[in-house]
Amino acid sequence: MSVASEAVPTIALVGNPNSGKSTLFNALTGHIQRVANYSGVTVEIKSGDTYTPHGRKLHVLDLPGCYSLRAQSPDEKIALDALSGQYPDTPKPDLVVCVVDSSNLERHLQLTLQVIEMGLPCLLALNMVDVAEKNGLRLDPAKLSEELGIPVVPMQANAGKGIIELKQALRHPFPPPSEASWLIHDQKDDIELLRRDFIRRLCELAARRSDSHQRSFSDKLDAIFLHPFHGWLVFGAVMFAIFWSIFSFAAIPMDWIESVQGALGSKLETLMPDGDLRSLLIDGVLGGVGGVLVFLPQIVLLFLFIGLLESSGYMARAAFLMDGLMAKAGLSGKAFLPLFSSYACAIPGVMATRTIDSAKERLVTIFVAPWMSCSARLPVYFLIVPLLLHEKEGTWKQALVLFCIYSLGTVSAFITARILRGRLGPEASVSHFVLELPPYRSPQWSYILRHVIDRAWAFVRKAGTIILGLSIMLWALSTYPKLPGDDKTAALAHSAMGRIGGFIEPLVKPLGFDGRTGTAILTSFAAREVFVSSTAILFRVDETDDDEQTRSLLRDKLAAAEWPDGRPLFTPLSMISLLVFFIYALQCLPTTAVVAREAGSWKWAIGQFAFMTAFAYLAAFMVFQGGKLMGF
Amino acid sequence: MPTATAKYRSAEGAVTLNQIGLNCDVRISGLVGPGCDRLRDLGFCEQMQLRKLSNGRNLVCSLCGARMAISRELAEQVLVAPLQ
User: Fold this and answer.
1) Which pTM value belongs to this model?
2) Does the pLDDT at position A416 exceed 90?
3) Closest-CA residue in chain A for B45?
């Protein structure tokens, strides 16, 4: 480490879950770390840099939320280790900024007192003062500062208010560690009792709350959303509306993308002479990458809806509702939040399990999380579902099938969790369901839009790197060695890919697939979306300038594909078998790596990969062979 | 087999959070049981005022302006008394 970097002071943001630490971190550093309106979003240390008004650089750490320094869950332990300077590769903070929700001072100040007791220089960021004022709380920051012996900065981080004042308070030299005045005279008493008494006195002086409980807007909404019957109706309606919207609203931008692709394809055809380079660009690059990019609007809509749910505060209500159902699977409602995150991507979902107190419940949640259909599976579903139903069927029917696909993965995950939980044995210590239900808030549109753009860009980048590379490789494998003549079927059979397909075919034929589909499945183990590109290349779809035709070509080609004896290749049964395979298969190496890290065992990760791949194969086998026996 | 209530009830006449009616405003008079530390961390401390908002498998209560959902087993460890 250089001398210059050693001179940069480190400040750590500490606070209860959902007190606005990540929002403040983003405001200070300009990062776009994930924020949401429920507890336990940040589960690892995030770092960034900020500057004081005098231009001094500061290194900022955003720590996972914790209720106290008595760490119970893995994320709380990370915060504790970071504060005590024991977290690997993280310097001990020179100053701790305790972020508290001003409307909940009685609860949040407990952690602040504990940080002061550690002897760390400290500053209090009195966040969400707008909510406190709205709730009728009379705050006196000067009195708070005087009693606690540390600087206090009132602020509203989500609106950028108080950020300048906070940066000014971060100027050097940092305030010295404050004395824990509540401990000085009563060394022999119960420390917790002393803290509680001090907080009560402090709040009476500096944060007076109206005694009468007022029924808030959140209380009124909760009466419906948490109701044992109406709550489930709302939950079902919200989920179905999301699936329906993804199918219906995405159609317009999808047409735009296809028009551009079609125009590009025809332009290339007119500009370039017939040959391998033109084939590479049109069949390989446009067919492969374009085939995946067309699903971008649906991915964007999925992340937009997830962002809205997270930002509004509804997610915690869904976790509350799901607790009873999750208990039947041997899990608690807290496991719902990581599992729901896995619908977007299994990696943050697996990491979010750090909020679960019980080690065994955490392991089980990690194991089943990849069965929550992630966004990488969507392009495959969007390709097959309209083919299965025929594109003219209403979008609500397609949404219903998608809903069933998600439900199948979820129900299977719950059943597996139940079995696995039973085998892992009872917990050494009992853990209980505890969840803070945040007030409903209007969505933070700027954050949601930035997050959606970020995820969309990640999708485009993946299409432009992994998928592009694999598409070029697949095109080469399906083109060479060449066979003289114009017979495309014979040329593909003669190519390297054709030979690989011939080798794989006996393995996948019992599932209802031919060698080409088997090869496309094999390539999708690099990234699930590659299945669509591979299918487009292997079934040789030509781009045209007619966007409607381009869109239907791949599906038409798949619908027209035949076995050598003339039987249709993609029957409803083989398509269901294909969907079932993709619901269950774990085709994501980054997820396996993260599972190994979070579970602390490569055996667990490899076991999960082997189990899910074998389960996917067997499930698809049973669907296809069982369906055939029943005469489908 | 003793019930959870009997197990954790410390003072004669004390009632647990499970036993009070909906929308009742009460003050926490004590915490008894293995979940005490966790409850205190969450803000369920002696002398705190709370209101029970819903019953069921998990209870929802309003505590210092925050809504907390806790399991019935934990709620059984929270002893409450009516507001003076």
Assistant:
1) 0.82
2) yes
3) A196
